[in-house]
Amino acid sequence: MKLAHVRAALIDLDGTLVDTLGDFVVALGRMLRELGLPAVDRAFVERTVGKGSEHLLRQTLLHVTGDPQAPERWFEAAWQAYQRHYLAINGEHAAVYLGVVEGLERLRSRGWPLGCLTNKPTAFARPLLERKGLAGYFQQVWGGDAFERKKPDPLPLLKACEALGMAPAHTLMIGDSHNDAQAARAAGCPVVLVTYGYNHGQPVHTAGADGYIERLDALPL
Ligand SMILES: O=C(O)COP(=O)(O)O
Ligand SMILES: [Mg+2]
To answer: 196 and 107 in one domain?
Structure first.
């Protein structure tokens, strides 16, 4: 892992900083019940999160109905209900991973500017970071709606580097999935993945990162 040139970091949220699977399962469950649709299982949610809420809702609607028309037909009602249910429980069924606070302290002690870059809507991400005591570590927080395109597109990383005043080659992306690695590669950022998150149901070591760590405080700085 070559981190000698790194001067800043962009860190993913779900599956990297906070284990939010419980929040997703509860909010989706309440939404589906409200719409009169069948429930969804935890394993499906785990392999579907990471590409933003719109993707999660469309895939869930397809999965529970088996009807290719369902995502279009139900999307608007689902989105309204999901936002309401998610915001009502945001962080209640979620826990900060071991090593995260220690890792953030170490990154901060190096004087690196830190940004949180997630595909989660900004309106969910900010209160979650506040509630979990992590907001103070980040200069900026960008959700999946902050830019025209989401990860795995490189655009959010390029824009975030620009906002931090750092070149991509000096900005480390830390994430938990192929999505983060692909975006970082295309943006020209070095990338390290944690091994405990959600990687779309795939083994994380196949994601093509520069390095893999079991805890955030295991970064060789
Ligand atoms: O898909 C989501 O809502 C969140 O994904 P991320 O925090 O891992 O980018
Ligand atoms: Mg993630």
So the answer is: yes
For the stretch 39-72, pLDDT in tens is: 999 999 999 999 999 999 999 999 999 999 999 9
- With respect to residue 1, please indicate whether it lies within any of the assigned structural domains: no
Rounded to an integer, what is the distance from CA 204 to the centroid of its chain?
15
Q: Does the pTM exceed 0.80? A: yes
Distance from the alpha carbon of residue 144 to the mean position of ligand 1, in angstroms? 8
Pocket flag, ligand 1, residue 14 (CB < 6 Å): yes
Residue 204 · residue 92 · CB < 8 Å: no
- Any idea what the Cα angle at residue 33 is, between residues 88 and 202, rounded to 5°? 80
> How many C-alpha atoms does 120 have within 13 Å on its Cβ side?
30
Question: Closest ligand to 146 CA?
Answer: 1
User: Does 124 map to a domain?
Assistant: yes
Same structural domain, 144 and 197: yes
147 and 84 share one domain: no
Structural domains counted in the chain: 2
The whole domain housing 148 covers: 8-19+95-218
Establish whether 12 is a catalytic residue: yes
